[in-house]
Amino acid sequence: MKPTFYVTTPIYYVNDVPHIGHAYTTVAADVLARYKRLMGYDVYFLTGSDEHGQKVEKAAITAGETPLELADRVVKRYQALWERLGISHSDFIRTTQERHKKGVSEIFSNILAKGDIYLGEYEDWYCTPCETFWTETQLIEGRCPDCNRPVEKLKEESYFFRMSKYQEQLLAHIEAHPDFIQPKSKRNEIVSFIKEGLRDLSVSRTTFTWGIPVPGNDRHIIYVWFDALTNYISALGYPDESGNYSRYWPVDVHLIGKDILRFHAVYWPTFLMAAGLPLPEKVFAHGWWTVEGQKMSKSLQNVVEPNMLIDKYGVDVVRYFLLREVPFGLDGDFSHTALIQRMNSDLANDIGNLLSRSTAMAVKYFEGILPEPSEMLDIDLALKTKTEEMIAIVDKFIDELAFSKALQAIWDVISAGNKYIDDSAPWTLAKDPANRGRLATVMHTLLESQRITHCVLSAFLPTTAGKALASLGYAEEISKEKLVWGGLKEGTVITKVEALFPRYEGKE
Questions:
Q1: Which of 197, 277, 363, 432 could bond 368 through an S-S bridge, CB–CB 3.0 to 4.6 Å?
Q2: Distance between CA atoms of residues 234 and 236, nearest Å
Q3: What digits encode the pLDDT tens for the residues 361-385?
């Protein structure tokens, strides 16, 4: 039996246009999913769209269409972008699907029957864009503390979830599971939020109709966050506890942006506790991207559109930049200058140059037929050892979601490969037929190091790794067992590869 691994992105709101932040979370989840498959795991990778709520209803009315028409139209943008980015998700959940509605109704009914959801009356300040109620004291100068937009006073009959009842249980869980909320700074933030005291949460609305009705009282629509968070189990077939639900739940990691941490680290675990369901293993909140030092916003017209980046630079350049530029968990700044710098130095100069030099020499000196190596010297063994050690280092960093450090470890091997060419000077060896055996070992060592490197890199840069492995004549399915030295056999046909990444010389 393969071990299982379940990873999710948030479900993206259909009132948004996909931007670099959405791409960031999804590419990170994709790398995790691809890497775990490579390492022999049975992986389930879920993404999807959040389609209910007042904001969608309002936007649809403004656009002169039904909310579902709006959702159908916008969801295609996400699906098309994931295809372009090479996202290998197992499933795409939409909150308008019957399987999801069934799961939400079930968990709501279950908690209601236990008495942890009750009917009452709600009066507070509501922010429609954030779909969040705030108390008077939480407002900043009378505006929403999250988005700084105006709020309105709402009074309505509402169902409430007894979140306050689970305050101590949640704190005890966080205490007992130090990795439950990551990074650590975010865990501390959540702990202080909980210690300020959890209030019961309003979990239904009567002021609009676009959503899932409360079972047995369809005047009420289930609160959009209660609805949305349930996607992580409804996609697995919950309430049917056999099949995918029993196979993959609890989730190994929810990857999210830091703006929705409270919903995932406070609301969601307490809903699950009330329903008697297991809690997620880990919630990891990554940082935000600014653009040239400024917050991304429609009003500043500086929203970075991923399709435009792919058109301009290519998909693997975008994937590489997102995960290499910033330690995962911290905020990052996007600029074309930084991206071009990475493209030219790391991609064109380092990895592209290494492969094109190596394959060109194999063609020039051995007519593209991999020779049998002779005995390895210390210089060869050093590159072999560095390549082998990289696998364990990458493994450790992937488990910590330290993607930039994992890539750095891979690039250390690439740099070592470039230095190895300079130090072993194949062009000098090629001048003397007596050095034929030595030259064969150098070429073999050089190309085998790159085979292993590109196998590991296939989780990050699938298109590039595919081209590289094809030029190395390696067509086997990549797996953990194949990450051992000696995969390239004598007689393998090597083809000279043109630049994997062209240098970018254009004006920004």
A1: 363
A2: 5
A3: 999 999 999 999 999 999 999 999 9
Q: Which of these, 305, 322, 273, 251, lies nearest to 47 by C-alpha position? A: 251
Q: What is the bridge-based pairing of β-strands 289-291 and 332-334?
A: parallel
Domain parsing of the chain, residue ranges: 335-482
- What the block records as the tokens of 50 is 């959040």
Secondary structure letter of residue 328 according to DSSP: B
- Cα angle: 284, vertex 286, 292; to 5 degrees: 180
Helix then strand count (H, E) for the chain reads 20, 16
What is the rounded distance in angstroms from the CA atom of residue 328 to the CA atom of residue 461? 17
- For the chain, what percent of residues have pLDDT higher than 70? 99
- Quick one: which of 13, 12, 10, 8 has its CA closest to 29? 8
The topology (CATH level 3) of 335-482 is Isoleucyl-tRNA Synthetase; Domain 1 (1.10.730)
DSSP 8-state class, residue 476: S
Q: What is the pLDDT of residues 181-194, one digit of tens each?
A: 999 999 999 999 99
Amino acid code (one letter) for 144: C
DSSP-derived pairing of the beta strands 213-214 and 217-222:
antiparallel
Output the CA–CA distances (angstroms, integers) from residue 194 to 171, 262, 432, in the order listed.
Answer: 7, 10, 74
In terms of C-beta distances under 8 Å and separation of at least 24 residues, what long-range contacts does 404-409 make, across chains too?
404/323, 404/324, 404/325, 404/326, 404/327, 404/328, 405/327, 406/460, 407/320, 407/323, 407/324, 407/460, 408/324
- pLDDT, one tens digit per residue, over 103-160 is 999 999 999 999 999 999 888 888 888 878 888 889 999 999 988 999 998 888 999 9
* CA 362 – CA 366 distance, rounded (Å): 5
Parallel, antiparallel or unpaired: strands 132-134 and 152-161 = unpaired
pLDDT tens readout for residues 10-22: 999 998 788 999 9
| Cα dihedral 184, 185, 186, 189 in deg (nearest 10) | 120
Query: Phi-psi region for residue 481, left (φ > 0), alpha (ψ -120 to 50) or beta?
Result: alpha
In angstroms, how far is CA 435 from the centroid of its own chain? 49
Among residues 462, 451, 440, which one has the least CA distance to residue 484? 451
Work out the number of other CB atoms within 10 angstroms of the CB of residue 159: 24
